[in-house]
Design goal:
Layout: E1 2-6, H1 11-23, E2 29-30, H2 42-55, E3 61-66, H3 70-76, E4 84-86, H4 90-98, E5 104-108, H5 114-126, H6 133-145
Parallel strand pairs: 1-2, 1-3, 3-5, 4-5
């Protein structure tokens, strides 16, 4: 399952990406907010998504959006088995997925255009995890820190 969530700073981009995903026949579950609330807080939505992905990190993934992408990333990474990373461009999206096995993509709503966000998301979704032994070794080290 692909989940998506944002705060008020990422709401407009979240709504855009939901339409993009639907157009491309990619199922997504919106974890909120359902309407624009200028006083909401990113930890609330990043927590919900982080908990969901943490339960089944190899099957589930997520997209989080706030103004700079970092706040939601910090929150999501508080949950075991979540590897959230922020991407500002297509190459970054490829690398965080391939080398770091990211299962949560964080986007900076204030700094990427809707078109760039589509390209970033598409590359991230299309990039498989690396099977290179050095990447596997590093992921195992990260996972061991969660215990």
């Amino acid at each position: 399952m692909l989940y998506i969530a944002s705060d008020h700073g990422g709401f407009k981009l979240k709504e855009h990406l939901k339409k993009y995903l639907a157009k491309n026949k990619i199922a997504v579950t919106d974890l909120g907010p359902k309407k624009y609330v200028p006083t909401d807080d990113y930890p609330d939505y990043a927590k919900i998504l982080g908990q969901k992905v943490s339960k089944n990190p190899l099957r589930d993934s997520g997209v989080l959006i706030c103004r700079n992408g970092q706040g939601v990333c910090i929150v999501a990474n508080k949950f075991a088995n979540v590897r959230a990373a922020t991407a500002w461009n297509v190459m970054g999206a490829k690398m965080i997925r391939e080398h770091d096995m990211s299962n949560v993509l964080c986007l900076p709503g204030d700094y990427v255009s809707p078109h760039m966000a589509e390209n970033i998301l598409e590359k991230w979704l299309d990039t498989p995890y690396s099977t290179d032994p050095r990447h596997i070794r590093r992921i195992k080290k990260i996972t061991s820190l969660e215990k």
